[in-house]
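Tutorial, part two.
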Amino acid sequence: MSDDTEDLLKPPSDEEYPTIERLPSSYNPLHSFTLAKGDQKHYQQQYGDMYFLRLAMLKPAVEEIAAETWGDMEIAGEKVRRVDRVLDVRQGELCWVAGTVYMDMPLKPNILDDISKDHWISAPPPREKYVSSSGQDQTMLEDESGRLRLVGTPLQISMLVTGCIIAVMGTENANGDFEIVDMKFPDLPRQPQRWERDEGSAALLNGDGKSKIEEQKGRTRGGKIAIVSGLGINGDEGDTLTLDLLMEYILGEACGPSTQKEVGNISRLIIAGNSITEGTPLHSRDELLDKKANKKYGYDSSAYNPAPTARLDDFLATLLPSVPITLLPGEGDPANVSLPQQPIHPAMFPRARNYLAMPGSDEPGWFDSVTNPWEGDVDGWRLMGNGGQPIDDVFKYVEGDERLEMMENLLRWRCGAPTAPDTLWCYPFQDKDQFVIEECPHVYFVGSQPSFETTIIEGPTGQTVRLIAVPKFKETGELVLLSTDTLETEIIKFEVFNES
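Running the prediction step on this input gives:
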């Protein structure tokens, strides 16, 4: 870094420097969370069907694990037997059954309260946690037949939330509760090999498809993927200094030759949600009636501030000639609130949209505005991530703040948003629960977290997953770099010196 400092402090000279080229990015996104458009997308169906779809998809997996573990087990001379339904459990009989967890928590939001909020003098503040200090919370196991209350020591050491699919082994006690002895989860699904999907696509092409993939593998060696979240752009002039430092670093403008070579290894930038500080707030019916008088030609300047999106567009348009970008929406971004959030509309990016894919094209663009959650293959690795809403909602169900443990459990439950639709807004799926994880990713990142954390978890059949909690850039000034060779991570921190 000292050499870089000397280079930056030298006066202008006629010395010629070699041109540094950025490593190419192999990019093959999946469209797992894209919703139908127009008349095909509607909200008239019931949300209850989602739980039955999730149970039907994950019950075989958890029952297979439970049967392998408990199939020949005997306790005190009594053999453990399997029952098909929750209501088939009999008092005093040792058995196991699979179903969907439901957390009965008095502090959870109530839809009836939401409907009646127009009659409130003031709305109650949002709760940081749903956990009751008085011990009123109950854990239930349900399926299409009924519901059973769970009790026992395993509940105290295992993390459970509404919507996860589990199998429990135990017996019904005299109070009609199911006393748990052991518990099983679906665990990590099959993990694809690196480059598996790209090679499969190449096999469908002409004869030289394989050779192109081999060439791509060689060109992407030594590359890095930059991941940032929570840019928090609000459009203020004095709010952009740290953001400008980030932009100049990625472009190689704020560093010397040695650091520029390292920056040239960044093959792609992923922005994981909350690029804008906050969207337009939802007004009450009375507030909307009062604001109608201020409208001029259908535009209300007090209800919409175009500066944040314009600043984000400038930021993206400055970077895009140099580096490809994948943009996920977040809770505060101009996209639909319910999960899965659909891509931010191109109309929000009058400059950056020139780098989007052509309408109707099967190939992704240099600038890819995607869904939240999102998954895809980058340099052969399967990446899956979201803007942070599923983890933030799981946080409210549990007592601790171990974000990596929550992320691990989401993967082992094989569900990317288990608390949807109970306490997390989502689309009412009817044919398939798109939040069910069918293939295990190599990297799972979650945006807008309190701090940077990372670890590696392993699955029962050799799966390894790099978990990354991406911090809010607005608060920490941290950029995460992921090596495409080793999946190791490093942090680049940007900070503005303040004498005061």
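Residues 48-70 form the longest helix (23 residues). In part three we will examine how such features are distributed along the chain.
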